[in-house]
Design brief:
The complex is a heterodimer of chains A (182) and B (391).
Chain A: E1 2-9, H1 14-27, E2 31-36, E3 46-54, E4 69-72, H2 77-80, E5 92-96, H3 101-108, E6 113-117, H4 119-126, H5 133-144, H6 153-160, H7 164-177, E7 179-181
Parallel strand pairs in A: 1-4, 4-5, 5-6
Antiparallel strand pairs in A: 1-3, 2-3, 6-7
Chain B: E1 4-8, H1 9-19, E2 24-27, H2 34-45, E3 52-55, H3 59-71, E4 76-80, H4 82-97, E5 103-108, H5 122-126, E6 133-136, H6 140-155, E7 163-168, E8 176-180, H7 184-190, H8 214-246, E9 253-256, E10 263-268, H9 271-284, E11 289-294, E12 296-298, H10 302-309, E13 314-319, H11 330-339, E14 347-352, H12 362-377, E15 384-386
Parallel strand pairs in B: 2-3, 2-4, 4-5, 5-7, 6-7, 10-11, 10-13, 13-14, 14-15
Antiparallel strand pairs in B: 1-8, 6-12, 9-11
Helix pairs in contact in B: 1-2, 1-6, 3-4, 6-8, 9-12
Classes of the chains: A alpha/beta (182), B alpha/beta (391).
């Protein structure tokens, strides 16, 4: 079982990101679960969302404390939240940032694999909005191979309707532009 | 086997209500039940579902409308949580007293104060004695399945009781997971249209729930008590029929690696799944631990519970509510009552855990088993504590 924790700010789509990842995994026949950090919605505040993916039915319903993958949707969180908290030694951090992966890795003081993409820039250019949820999923797939790229197309189409294509483009661009370092 | 579809559990619940051909939905939105009624109001407004959707001003009215519509023979549905259920409580006793097979989903949430929207079972325990059939489900699939099971059961002329599906708020209601949907033709076969025994109709007037003097009330209460207990046979029968259709067989009490276990955890609701992970971890360490899960809360499955637990030395009951000033947790009280008359029975150690959304991890279950085994060994055989409280 792979456990993924998403860090974002309320309204940025961390929950949607976790949900789409689970839906894509279920679509390709895996078992998956996605849920928010339960509670009132707080626009702009740091929030987390969770996703589990497994080949077997998932029985655990607790929060994720020792993730395999951490996804960060907002670069400002890297400075104010300990996003690497509990990350497994062989875990991966995937984040949006203007900086190089080397610089991000150094500032986080981790030995983990780090994937970096400027998702905010891609989202502004492709979607015209600073919402990085679908963009960062492209980056997650590049850094982890967790779910096939094409498995996201049906859930994107169902969730976004006529703006699905733009989100697929943002996803694809992030997949291409993500740089991963060991 | 049907394909698994990823969806939020609340949406699956609403889809089941649609597939069950419900005629009347009446509800008032309250967190964490909201997504169920939002989705239902959408699909009724879109014309995808041929039902009357009543937006009411309170939960008391929501249940009152269900009582009225069900009495005319319309299949009726509502759902609520916590304070909403509290406001509705008065009418829940009317529904069962009138033997109206309404279905209600309760997305379980803490009763305030302090104000809290998170999950525990304090709301369900408040109306424990309301005379409805009551289950606690473990996952989204069980919520979906039990919508069909509940109507077929409740509407059976040998049952005629309203039914509550308790599903943990947020922990189930706000989670996306795979659900196996059932084809409509199969559901239509399993759940034929409602044929009420008596119904309110202007052409053939009858009175329901008329005034009862002391000379008759005790008899009506005994009739209700006997009928709810007697529904056990029908509950097993409907679960069997559902299992034959889908391959998913349900039982009032289920066990996991429990047969030879010296210590048993006992849970009700969605934490049972997490507890089973803890049992696997303890078994790997060579410990003799198993799990018993109560699915059917009313009528209480006394015999099944005895069969599942009497062989054990220690029974660690995890409650999700506290009977303040009373004996501890309501589930442990029931369990103790069930095994009290047995010459050989386990010691019952009781924790209230996951109070108002406090996370319960596999590690927490292991800690509770550790603590209970030590306490019982040291002679504190019937202890109660609220787990994980910072002091």
């Amino acid at each position: 079982m792979i456990e993924i924790r998403f860090h974002g700010r309320g309204g940025q789509g961390a929950v949607t990101s976790a949900e789409l990842l689970a839906l894509a995994a279920i679509w390709e026949g895996k078992y998956a679960q996605a849920f928010p950090s339960f509670g009132p919605e707080r626009r702009g505040a740091p929030v987390v969302a969770f996703c589990r993916i497994s080949d077997e039915p998932i029985r655990i319903r607790a929060n994720i404390y020792e993730p395999d993958i951490v996804v960060v949707l907002d670069a400002s969180l890297l400075k104010i939240v300990n996003v690497a908290s509990g990350l497994k030694p062989n875990g991966i951090i995937v984040t949006t940032s203007k900086d190089s992966p080397e610089k991000v890795k150094e500032s986080l003081k981790v030995k983990n694999r780090v994937g970096v993409v400027n998702a905010a820039k891609i989202a502004m250019e492709v979607l015209g909005l600073p919402i990085t949820n679908t963009t960062m999923l492209g980056s997650v797939v590049k850094a982890s191979d967790l779910v096939k790229k094409e498995s996201f197309i049906p859930p994107f189409k169902e969730r976004f309707g006529r703006i699905a294509d733009k989100n697929i483009s943002a996803f694809e661009r992030a997949y291409q532009e993500t740089v991963v370092i060991q | 086997m049907a394909k698994r579809v990823g969806m939020e559990v609340s949406i699956a619940a609403a889809e089941a209500v649609k597939q069950a051909n419900v005629d009347v939905i009446s509800a008032y939105p309250i967190t964490p039940q909201t997504h169920i009624v939002e989705h239902l109001s959408e699909i009724v407004a879109n014309g995808e579902m041929d039902a009357e959707f009543f937006c009411v001003e309170s939960e008391h009215s929501a249940m009152s409308i269900c009582i009225g519509s069900e009495a005319t023979g319309a299949r009726s549905f509502t759902c609520t949580s916590a304070q909403g259920l509290a406001l509705m409580a008065e009418m829940t006793y009317i529904a069962s007293g009138l033997r109206l097979p309404i279905l209600m989903i309760v997305a379980n949430r803490t009763l305030s104060a302090p104000l809290s929207i998170w999950n525990d079972h304090s709301d369900a325990m408040m109306i424990r004695d309301c005379g409805w059939v009551q289950y606690f489900v473990e996952n989204g699939q069980e919520v979906y399945d039990h919508v069909f099971i509940s109507y077929r059961l409740g509407e059976d002329r040998n049952v005629l009781f309203p039914v509550i599906i308790n599903m943990d708020g947020f922990v189930l209601s706000h989670v996306i997971e795979p659900i196996e949907l059932i084809e409509q033709e199969k559901i239509d076969q399993f759940l034929p249209p409602y044929q009420p025994l008596y119904q309110l109709h202007p052409d053939q007037p009858i009175t329901m729930g008329a005034f009862a003097l002391p000379a008759i009330f005790a008899e009506t209460k005994k009739a209700q008590e006997m009928a709810l207990r007697a529904s056990m046979g029908k509950i097993l029968e409907v679960w069997k029929a559902f299992g034959d259709m889908t391959g998913r067989y349900y039982q009032p009490v289920e066990t996991y690696r429990a047969e030879d276990a010296e210590t048993l955890l006992l849970t009700m609701g969605s934490i049972g799944e997490t507890a089973s992970v803890a049992v696997d971890q303890m078994r790997e360490e060579g410990r003799s631990v198993g799990l018993v899960k109560i699915r059917l809360w009313r009528p209480f499955p006394f015999e099944a519970l005895k069969q599942a637990t009497l062989h054990a030395k220690n029974l660690v009951v995890i409650d999700r509510a506290v009977s303040v000033g009373g004996p501890g947790g309501p589930v442990a009280s029931e369990v103790k009552a069930a095994i009290y008359g047995e010459p050989i029975r386990p010691s019952v150690y009781n924790f209230a855990a996951g109070i108002s959304g406090r996370d319960v991890t596999p590690f927490d279950f292991i800690k509770m088993v550790d603590k209970a085994e030590i306490e019982i060994e040291e002679g504190n055989k019937e202890g109660f504590e609220i787990y994980g409280v910072r002091e």
